[in-house]
Amino acid sequence: MSPSFKLQCHLILIFLVALRGESRYLELREKGDPDPFLLFSANLKRELAGEQLYHRALRCLDMLSLQGQFTFTADQPQLHCAAFFISEPEEFITIYYDLVSIDCQGGDFLKVFDGWILKGEKFPSSQDHPLPTTERYIDFCESGLSRRSIRSSQNVAMIFFRVHEPGNGFTLTIRRDPNLFPCNVISQTPNGKFTLVVPHQHRNCSFSIIYPVVIKISDLTLGHLNGLQLKKPSAGCGGKGDFVELLGGTGLDPSKMMPLADLCYPFQGPAQMKIGCDNTVVRMVSSGKNINRVTFEYRQLEPYELENPNGNSIQEFCLSGL
Ligand SMILES: *[C@@H]1O[C@H](CO)[C@@H](O)[C@H](O)[C@H]1NC(C)=O
């Protein structure tokens, strides 16, 4: 990379981070957070530190959360490889094929999957993803370079590949693009805060946390923000209309998880739950008639919290003592 190109990249990065910082700033101001610049500079540092990893080798089993260029070269026949990509909740991932040297006729393959699959379970589930399952796989050996870049529908994506011949492989560039209304998300961190907004869209959105957590739902709006179309509290949700459900389970697929709680009328003020399951999902079902919004905070459970249900008023799920 020439020095001036590198400088340009730095400037673009700083610009992007500034843009992102700006939107966070507005969001935080709304919630009355005292120091938005803490977040801003932490982000900037992370991004610039990440810049140094701009090019690296890809392993047969890999996990990436950075933008950059990644090269896989087989040193022996590699038959079962996968790389998982994850970005921030409010980003899409775009995968560009820079160079592909594999033998499709000889049984090699390189496939992108729009989401993650682990042990046969998909995220987002087929119920929550905008595309039918078959269209979520893009096979290089079928499409070739006619689809040079592939953008995910959420903050996670992955590739599967098989390369028989030592020396063969491929180079990909991974970029992250802003997503104004993140719908399906896997949290990159075990602690965090998020507001899921579904504005007049007939779709379902799942926010997945792949850790046991305490989750606090602080705000739920189902309906017009002026409150005119709010539903009356009623007994249970009956699976109708717009609602939020909390799910717990051991796998990745929200449609296979256990429903723990349903929330179908708006409230303010925290509802807190301890969820000791491996995986927790906040899922919003929307008819498209309303602007729906839910805010929640989560923090990873400590090992001792998993063992001792505390017997107070907090609802608890998936804990060994239950
Ligand atoms: C959303 O989920 C609900 C219940 O889980 C289902 O009845 C509905 O068909 C789904 N909507 C869409 C757009 O997939």
UniProtKB/TrEMBL annotation:
What UniProt keywords apply to this chain's record, in alphabetical order? Answer: Disulfide bond, Glycoprotein, Secreted, Signal
> Which portions of this protein are annotated as coiled-coil regions?
none
* A Pfam family it matches: CRF-BP_C
Q: Which cysteines are joined by disulfide bonds?
A: C60-C81, C104-C141, C183-C205, C237-C264, C277-C318
Domain Corticotropin-releasing factor binding protein C-terminal as annotated: residue spans: 185-307
One annotated GO molecular function is: corticotropin-releasing hormone binding
Q: Which processes are annotated in GO (biological process)?
A: hormone-mediated signaling pathway; negative regulation of corticotropin secretion
- Any idea what job this protein has? Binds CRF and inactivates it. May prevent inappropriate pituitary-adrenal stimulation in pregnancy.
Q: What is this protein called?
A: Corticotropin-releasing factor-binding protein
Q: Which organism is it from?
A: Molossus molossus (Pallas' mastiff bat)
